[in-house]
Amino acid sequence: MQIIDGKAVATSVRSALKAEIETLSVSSGKHPGLAVVLVGDDHASRIYVRNKINACAELGIKSTLVELPATCTEEDVLREVCTLNDDDTVHGIIVQLPLPRHIDTDKVLASVKPEKDVDGCHYVQKGKLWTGNPETLPCTPYGCIELLKHYGIEIAGKEAVVVGRSNLVGRPLAELLLRENATVTICHSKTKDLGEVTRRADILCVAIGSGKFIKADMVKDGAVVIDVGMNRDEEGKLCGDVDFKNVADKCSYITPVPGGVGPMTVTMLMKNTVEAFKRRI
């Protein structure tokens, strides 16, 4: 069993990105810019936003943080997004989710200019992905594929099972695996005999938001396991959707939580921002 070290891979990608940004900035006289819109005071969201702002500072990306109170109106959020859409120094925009319940998330995400959507959430970007002409890939699924490639794990011809069908992770990850010529099955809460399906997987990707849900008897010997989950166990410690302690010995490769997919999500956001900057200049 080999642990997939997301921190090490992210460090390698960021090193290359930093050098590329320096070269682009010298040649163009401009710097890539990322704006983050944060609504409310959710503790987890603040941590995620802080990580993004810190990554920008590390790489030489100009960051803009727009903070709004949880009591703001939907119109307030849309107005801020519109302002960022018109700002030529901003090349990427991300709206931190979740938004308060009284705000229509789909409407807000659709208000971001597609060319500035660096999280792959806009319906135009999703449409391009599903029609085989992707421009901006969703960050977490993108990071999963990059981890597999970095470790030289063969995807083509393999049977891949994705547990979870969210628009943010499950569905786009399934599409990216299809693009790499895997045979893909998507499982969800209504899937019958889930363990029977997951045991067929050469590559098992789990993104359901339920701590330690995948047990050893649900995993094929020698499988590659990508755990996208981020939960707290009974002791308050971070854990994934996979019961790592009991599953790891059955795997050829497995991502830990933390330190697996997580570092790659922010890193691919940085990469998407640089790509949006390059398209602009």
Throw out a few tags for this protein.
281 residues; alpha/beta; Rossmann fold; 2 domains; 6-stranded parallel β-sheet; 10 helices
Number of helices: 10
Order of helices and strands: EHEHEHEHHHEHEHEEEEHEH
Distance between the termini: 45 Å
CATH superfamily of the largest domain: NAD(P)-binding Rossmann-like Domain
CATH topology of the largest domain, by name, is Rossmann fold
Helix fraction?
A: 40-55%
Arrangement of strands in the largest sheet: 1-11-8-7-5-6
Secondary-structure content class: alpha/beta
The 3D shape can be described as globular
CATH secondary-structure class of the largest domain: Alpha Beta
Q: What is the annotated CATH architecture of the largest domain? A: 3-Layer(aba) Sandwich
Strand content: 15-25%
Low-confidence stretches: none
Average pLDDT over all residues: 96
Radius of gyration: 19 Å
Total tally of structural domains: 2
Largest sheet: 6 strands, parallel
Number of strands: 11
